[in-house]
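Researcher: Next sequence.
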Amino acid sequence: MASGKKKRVMIACVTFETAKVVNPVMFYEVNKVHIIHYIRDPLAESSKIYLSFYDRVVDVIRERSPLDIEIVEHIEKVSDFSAMLRTVLKIIQDERAEDDGSEVYVNISSGSSEYAAASAIASMMVPGTIPFSVGTKQYTVATEDIPKVYFENGLPVGLTKDTYDPKTIHSYSIAIPDEVLVRGLRVLEERNRDGLQVTGPKMIESLKEKGIWYRKTEVSDPEKKARQRLTEAVYYQRDFVDNWSANGWVAKNSRTGKYEVTEEGRAVLGIFYT
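Model: Next structure:
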């Protein structure tokens, strides 16, 4: 590995694709690639076809990337969801165990559907992992040639002509973000967007107005109002800000000192409790 160069690791699966694996290697300037593929019988003609795609991916990476790029081969059954989840998760954990500040990118667009699902789940299980998808800009089959490839007897069939019986896959629980935290985060984002103050007292006031503040902190005695404000400030920090920060949803602006919603936080807002 080149001295001083940040380690960027990518995980991908190869079946019948090349560009979806190779192009991201160049885009992210990856210097270590874990490639998962499968060979049932090295002597079988079908296995030779699969192997040719893997070999081509390796050749192109070598041609386009620095000579010091590291390619790690993993031969696993790509049609087995559990095997894919185990394999991807182990690769991520092994890379993270080195704790050298490396970035781990997981390509969820390449390979089999079982790999795609498993790699997305594995990415979410290990904080800091960066899953990404790759869209197709241009296909190898021209539009006018699609009937020749994907039609049979004049009817659309697709690449798959027949299937095995469906197999259920094991489910893995991934917690949905807490609703109060997400709705509170949306208040912070909206106030920042509208140029309003996001100080503790202003945020607490807004959270109360929207019915998000769940602590019973109101007091009727005017002499205890100061104590109430102090108590609420502690709760706001502990119940909201600390959790937002721990989840990577907010970061403090070094110039203004204000908490601002991060890209990850905005992604959460775009998905949950909309």
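Model: The chain is about 45% helix and 15% strand. The chain has a mean pLDDT of 90.
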